Structures are given as structure tokens and as C-alpha cells.
Amino acid sequence: MCNCISKKHNIDSLNQPSSSRKVDFPSSFLWGAAISSYQTEGANYNSDWYLWEKKKKIQEAARAANHYELFSRDFKLAKELNLGAVRLSFEWARINPKPGVYIEEEINHYKEVIQTLKILGLKPFVTLHHFTNPIWVAESGGFESSKNIGHFLEYLKRIVEEFKGDIQHWSIFNEPLVYVYNGYICGRWAPGVKSIRIARKVSSNITSAYIEGYKEIKSIYNGEVSSYVSLVNHIRKFSPCPNFNFGQNSISACLKDKLSNFGIINYLTKKSCLDYLAVNYYCKEYVKFKGLVGAECMHQFHKERKNYLGWYIYPQGFYELLKKFKHYDLPIYIMENGTAEIEDSLYKDYLSSHLQSVARAISEGVDIKGYFWWSLIDNFEWDYGFSPKFGLIDVNYDTFERRIKPFALTYAKICKENRIEI
User: Fold this and answer.
1) Which residue in 194, 225, 346, 413 is deepest, having the highest Cβ count within 10 Å?
2) What is the pLDDT of residues 123-171, one digit of tens each?
3) Residue by residue, what is the 3-state secondary structure of 300-369?
4) In sequence order, which residues have a C-beta less than 8 Å from that of residue 323 and are 6 or more positions away?
5) Which of 280, 113, 264 has the alpha carbon at shortest distance from 177?
6) Third-level CATH fold of 25-232+332-417
7) Which of 210, 320, 182 is nearest to 262 (CA)?
């Protein structure tokens, strides 16, 4: 097996779809899958999303996939699929349900989770904030209030001090711009605010919390053990809606690309507080002119297909964005990439086409270290409920029985052989 991807071999392969060729990934490439605590664990009754579900009368996470009790089974299945890593999150509300109160039983639970991963040879990547807050934090203003930066940093410090011997890769926040947009601009998520002014304040406070959190983690490790800290950024391919006002739409798409895909990364790299780039990619978005950065438009002439949720599938955009990230000269981990479908063949198509984009980017010098499918198991997809199925593993929500999906075996083969066929 080759230790690197030959640029000529890879590009020739991509330009000759009629002939089947195999392309190797770097020998150290890390294959994985991702989950989050609220979406999988169940019974997170101290989280603000629990109250949001009650308030809005939407489908409740309830026991979710019961991962809290069945994590060992899920990780064994991950090992059967030849994964080398699992990305997961710790639930702030479980660990710190009241101001200044930390539940040792819950900290010990996550210690068991991490030890189980390590025993199985699965590298843990841990996220400290994946969209949810303790109820007491939400009731005191969430990240609208600068005083909650201190509460979050107290939680961060406690956790990192407890786990520094077992975890090297930390993501302090997951997709903060998605969190701000859905919670404070369009109001689809908790706390349901619709205010640009408040959204800017929340974004600023989260950015400040990240920078201080980065410094805190580095101080805790103190160079004694390697630590790698980042923030997970959601990226999309933004294209102008080709209907009327194409020129104005192009300006809006360009601005949205600059702000959403690169804005926070540019800021944090200037502050020298990103050890690696952590990105999530799913689809393309068409943009129409409306206000400063435009708005999403539904485009009926999309040449590629749409997935179960109506998202515009566009693997070429994945490649294009990865190439743009090359100039940061930082290692890249793809923390989430995946789709929800009805037919297994469509999962396979998505997986194959997007891994071809990854392989092509690597062949052209982009330093991509690993790839995580979203998600390891089917789970609760926020305001979409349980209907979308992103998992490598199917979950029966009545019995909590697990079943490996057929397309996951394709991924398992890729992980084992460290190569794709194109």
C-alpha cells in the first residue's frame, strides 16, 4: 500500500469514470464516525433543549438512542466497522446541573466512556459544547450574558483537568455559527430569539469563550502532553441563485462564503489559537440577494440530486472548499460528513463521491488527517426529530436494537484497506 496519493494517478482516475482504479490514502489517515451527547444519550433532562421541546411541543429526544447505557455496544460496533476514532461530546448539563455543582458520577461515566474507546483502540475526539446548555445557564441568559463565559470556562477547566491524560484532541464548540443562526436569527432552535443585535453579541461571547478556553487548555497541558485544540466550523458551497438578479445574488453568495466558511477561521488563526482546522460539510446552498449576506433560495434547476431532507448534494463543492483551506497551513480533520437517505445505494453514492473529493484534495497537497462520518448511529436530529437517518448503524427506537446498514460495510472496507475505488 502506498503511503501517499499520487497526484497524477488520482486526477487521471477522477477524469476517467469508465475505468475503475484504486487510490490509497496516507498510511496515518484516521477513519472515524461522530456522535453528540444530546442526540444519542437520552434522558438529558437538565439541558435547555429538553425545555425547548416542551415549550414548542415538538418531537422529544426522550431516551434518544439510549447511548448513555449502550455506549459499549455502540463502540464495539464501531470497531467491527474498522474505525480508528470516534468523535463525541460531553453533556455540560449532566456534569454541571447547578451553578458550582459537579456530579462525580457523571464525570466517572464519561471516564468509562473514554476508557472503553481506548481499550478498543478507538481514538477519542471530544467536543465540550455541542449546541446544548444547562437549564440554569439558559435561564441566566445563555451566551447572551458575558457572565456565562466564566461558567463555561469553569466547566471546561474541570473537564480538561480530569481527562488530560486520556484525550489529546479537543473541540471547544461545535458549529457556533449554526448555533447562533438557528437560535438567535431564524429562531428555529432554543432559545428562539430573532435578533441580529443579540446574535452578534452571542457570537462575540462564544468567540471570547473559545479564545480563553484555548489558553486554559494549553495552560493545563503545559507542554507535558501534546494537546490539539480547535473549533468545529460548518462549511457549505454557496452559489448564487441563477434566477433573477444573478449579479446581486453573486455578491450575496460571495459574502456568505467569506463570512460563514472563513470568517471565524481567519479571526482565530490571526489570534494563533487554532491547532488544526475542524470542518463539517454536507451540501450546497443557493443564495439570493436579501440584506447584507443574502438568504437561502430554493433552486429547482440543481443538476445534482437532493437528499431526504432536500439538501443539495454537491461533492465538487467539498473539494473546492478543502483546496481553499490549504493556505492556512494547518492539519485538517473532517469532523462531520454524511447524509440522510431512504435507499442504501444513495448512501453509498454520497460516501464514494465525497471521499473522492477528499482524495483529490489530498493529492493536491491539502493536509487532511482524518474523516468522520456523521453519524455512527441514527439519532435525534434536533428540530427534524428522528425521521432523518444519518447513521452507519440503524437504531430501533422501541427496542434500541442496533443493525449495521449495508452501506456501512462499504465504509468498513474502505477503512480497512485505507483506499477507495474510483
Assistant:
1) 346
2) 999 999 999 999 999 999 999 999 999 999 999 999 999 999 999 999 9
3) CCCCCCECCCCCECCHHHHHHHHHHHHHHCCCEEEEEECCCCCCHHHHHHHHHHHHHHHHHHHHCCCCEE
4) 361, 364, 366
5) 264
6) TIM Barrel (3.20.20)
7) 320
Q: What is the pLDDT of residues 225-242, one digit of tens each?
A: 899 999 999 999 999 988
Cα 8 from chain centroid? 31
Rg, Å, the chain Cα set: 21
- Cell 443585535, residue? 197
Q: Which helix (H) or strand (E) holds 126?
A: strand 123-129
> DSSP string of 9-70?
HHHHHHT-TTS--EEEPPTT-EEEEE--HHHHS---TTBHHHHHHHHHTPPP-TTTT-HHHH
Q: Could you tell me if 29 and 418 are in contact, meaning their C-beta atoms sit under 8 angstroms apart?
A: yes
SS3 128: strand
How many residues are there in the chain?
A: 422
Written in H, E and C, the secondary structure of 219-232 is: HHHCCCCCCEEEEE
Residues annotated as part of the active site:
336
Residue 242 is placed in which grid cell?
441563477
φ, ψ dihedrals at 26, nearest 5°: -55, 145
CA gap 34, 241 in Å, rounded: 32
Separation CA 88–CA 197 (nearest Å): 32
Kindly list the distances between the CA atom of residue 327 and the CA atoms of 13, 26, 80, 403, in Å, as whole numbers in the listed order.
Answer: 25, 20, 37, 41
What integer pLDDT is reported at residue 19 of this predicted model? 60
- Three-state DSSP state, 289: coil
